[in-house]
Design a protein that fits this description.
The protein has a domain of about 60 residues: Aspartate/ornithine carbamoyltransferase (Rossmann fold), CATH 3.40.50. The protein contains four helices and three strands. It has a three-stranded parallel β-sheet, covered by helices on one side. The longest helix has 16 residues. The protein is globular, with a radius of gyration of 15 Å.
Length: about 100
């Protein structure tokens, strides 16, 4: 069974969790071919509520290198937030369809 984690701040996870994550990241960097299809069939959202070209592109590139499908936006004016939807509502609406939701606000 997969545990759902809601990571909003570095304080949301223990040092032990971060150490395991760092170790996993190092392994991905050293042996990318092993991980190239790890996320095949998974959907990742990249939702940026402020301009951030490098960060947005790096998140999308990383997800695609793992085989994930990526969609999202980089202009909040093209979303329901521009009509008054709250950020919390946007998260609740998109979360059931996604494995990962990357946001920058």
């Amino acid at each position: 069974m997969t545990t759902v984690r809601k990571l909003v701040s570095v304080d949301d996870m223990s040092r032990k969790w971060w150490d395991r994550l760092y170790s996993q990241c190092c392994d991905i960097i050293l042996r990318p071919d092993i991980y190239s299809n790890t996320c095949r069939g998974k959907l990742f959202a990249s939702m940026f509520f402020e301009p951030s070209t490098r960060t947005n592109f790096s998140f999308q590139a990383a997800a695609q290198r793992l085989g994930a499908g990526v969609f999202g936006f980089s202009d909040p004016l093209g979303t329901s937030v521009s009509k008054g939807e709250t950020l919390a509502d946007t998260i609740r609406m998109t979360a059931p369809s996604l494995e990962t939701n990357t946001m920058k606000d």
